[in-house]
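Interim report, section 4.2 (structural modelling).
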Amino acid sequence: MNINATFFAELIAFCMFVFITYRYIWPSMASVLEERRKEIDEGLQAASESKRQLEEAKEESSRVIDAAKSEASTLVNQAGSRADQLIDEAKDQATEEAKKIKETAESDIAQSTNKAKETLKEELSVLVVAGASKILNKEIDESANKEIVDQLIKEL
Amino acid sequence: MAKEAANNLVETSDYIGHHLVNLTFGWCEKTSSWGFAHHQQDLSKSLDSACEVSEMGFWAFHMDTIFMSVFLGVLVFGFFGLINRSAKKGTPGKLQNFVEFVHEFIGSAVSSGYHGTSKIVAPLAFASCLWILSWNLMDLLPVEMANFFGQAGSGINYFKILPTADLNAPLALAAVVMVLVTYFSINTHGLGGFLKELFIVPLGPLEFISFVSKHVALALRLYGNLFAGEMIFILIAIMFGQFFMSFSQTLWFLPGLIMNLAWALFHILIVALQAYIFMMLTIAYLNLASTKH
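Predicted structure of the assembly:
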């Protein structure tokens, strides 16, 4: 057996290294690992949270898209019916307008016909008087015969 | 022929003897002075003692054991301390990964084996496991290396690089464990309870013997395994040595090579296993001491 004072030297050295480990190495390593563990935990939680949020956002967006689609289709429908309505209205208006124009034209025609008739009557009366005076070859008292002529004209 | 064989035998036993002697610095009774054992070093005449190693008493230091163990300790714990100092909270580098793996490994061994609250157990397990491992790894260096450098001019003729093969070192570790086990036991059971458990319950003084012997066994197990491993490396090295001594022994070279390789591979297991066993037993003893039963 070879036991000697080396034992004490080793004893002291071992106590020293255990103390160094206890004081400086072990706790700092543990804290680094603990912090990393916490960080990873937080990261994982954040990831699952954002996953959940993504899911929600997806749902929300599909909901919005559906709403927009249905709105669009109603709008299209509305627009279609509105267009039909507008066309109908325009047709009605046009028909009415045409009717009005036609009426105006008819009344105009009637008026000018009447006017022409009047003018013709007057001209005819003059012509009749002139013709009669020529036929009679004599001066006819215009005022005396006017009554007759007017009578004639009226009867025309 | 017979003479040559006898010479070989003397050389062989000399060789083994040479490899089993520590570089010893101690108190020499004859001259009443401190010094290195006779002819162990050529560095300084004034430090050369008249005493042989065997003539030195208890007050002697194995300088190689102390130097190697402290050197390896500074290396290992310095490495861990340095990596720790630059440890980042974010993505760890490769070295930090390794350090953290070791930490986790020992931490899980401690948390599964020790159920008390003491904060010293994990650092103790860490320090003992890594220190012993670093010692044991020295066994994988070629047995001739230390002497080779010694003969190459350092002036040191005896140098054992394996601290585990010096019983003082494992015994010191086991002594620290024993002191802690005693402290834990007294903490848990009180001084009276502890003494009662040691000397009275259930088998009387046998309990005390078992208490001491389990700690001595803790040291001897480690020492024995590594000493035996070292011894076998030395024997294999002798086989190699035959190759250089006489041409007729050339045949020993190949088996020597194969055996050395095989034993080194197997020894890697022992090297790590013994460090692990020491750590686990330390944890188990401390756990036992800190639980009421």
